[in-house]
Amino acid sequence: MARFRHRLGQYPAAGALAEEALTLAPTETPAQADALLMLAMSAAGTELLAEAEGYYRRAADLVSEGDLDGASDLFAVYLTCHQVLRACGDGRAGEVLATARAALLERAALIGDEEMRRSFLENVPHHRALLHELTICPSCR
């Protein structure tokens, strides 16, 4: 629901829902990373940039320290963290992208059919965007 509110430009409502999700999520879990990212996007939407950066950095800490295989959209979490860390000049941006790339290719390797594997990599928006980020940041491989 928070993502829906955010897409409608209802940033304070999205932030309130994300705050509620954060209080319900167990610590250091994918759900907590998702909630922190939504809080960051909501804060950025209302031009509270220092607050947004704080949320992004907390989410990035979870991404770089933990196993996010249970995230509702694992690659969206990785992508968002990478983009924000890169924009902030945080050296962890490359680490996050390299981790995302490894996880994405590991999942793709499980798909036996070549056409389906290519579709998985090229037609899923967050997967395609991550691969595009690698062209922007070749040293992040």
How are the SSEs placed, and which strands pair?
Blueprint (H helix, E strand, L loop, with lengths): L1 H6 L3 H14 L5 H16 L3 H17 L8 H14 L4 H18 L4 H9 L2 H12 L5
Helix pairs in contact: 2-3, 3-4, 3-5, 4-5, 5-6, 5-8, 6-7, 6-8
Under CATH, the topology can be stated as Serine Threonine Protein Phosphatase 5, Tetratricopeptide repeat
How many domains, in number, for the residues? 1
**What is the H/E string?**
HHHHHHHH
Give the helix level as a range of percent.
over 70%
**C-alpha Rg (nearest Å):** 15 Å
Structure characterization notes:
The protein has 141 residues and is mainly alpha-helical. The chain has a single domain (2-140), classed as Alpha Horseshoe (Serine Threonine Protein Phosphatase 5, Tetratricopeptide repeat), CATH 1.25.40. It has helices at 2-7, 11-24, 30-45, 49-65, 74-87, 92-109, 114-122, 125-136. The longest helix has 18 residues, at 92-109. The radius of gyration is 15 Å and the shape is globular. The mean pLDDT is 83.
Key terms:
mainly alpha, 75% helix, 141 residues, 0% strand, Serine Threonine Protein Phosphatase 5, Tetratricopeptide repeat
Outline of this structure?
With 141 residues, this protein is an all-alpha fold.
